[in-house]
Design a protein that fits this description.
By secondary structure, the chain is mainly α. The chain has 13 helices and two strands. It starts with 11 loop residues before the first helix and ends with a helix.
Amino acid sequence: MQIKRTGSWFNLRNVTVLLLIIYFSIFLVYPIYKAFAGSLHDWNPLIDKYEFIGLDNFKNVLTSSAFWQSMKNTFVFAFFSVVFRLIIGLGLAMLLSSKLTRFKTFFQGLFYMPTITPLVAVSFVWMWMFDPQFGLINKVFNLDINWLKDSSWALPAIIIMTIWKDFGYATVIFLGGIMGLPEEVFEAADIDGATGWQKFVKVTLPLLKPTTLFVVITSLITYLQAYIQILIMTEGGPGTSTYVISYLIFDEAFVKYNFGAASAMAIILFVIIGILTVLMFKVTGERKVK
């Protein structure tokens, strides 16, 4: 006889919830707590130093020229990367949604391929492409630029590489949004005699606002944490021209072993990203209600 236990907490649903709580506690809640606690201490694990200093780390960070330079670089990097990701992604999505375009599946895969390529590998390939003597960029465009060693060109070079790697993501998201637009709206625009450009500006773009917002916010969150391509391609140089906030956090923590200041910067970045995330949910929620 099979005994059926009723009312027991030991079932698949409760165990799954318990495992999720344990997982997020270990890998999300505890690191956030540790970073916040560390930001309030003079913390150097090499000499086992962990002294409470209150908000001094935040004060030192917010009055540091290196921090503000890294924030400036971060937002310049994020702004141009997001803008060109949107323009290229939307443009290619419009082309792929056109009835005149053949082999759509092939081109979708082709455009999305850089997105799923490991960033480390892409960074090394583009380092060679930006090489002043043997690189493909200078040869193809007949240029004489030392891209990654010139403080005026290093950050634009990283932005170019990042746009190339990530535009496929925006293309796929926009294509999904375009394919989901109601046909009757465009039929009504055709009846009214609207041109292709008028339909794009007055119909397509307004209907794609939620999709555009999603791409903008997710892209900003990603680019505000950019780190790997900086580490591999320039190591923050030349000088501090490509220091972004994530790389500065790495430098403070694992080069200078000033974990307290690094934790304070991480908390500031966490707050900025949290505000953007809340904004995304709020705006998209309001649009759904409307």
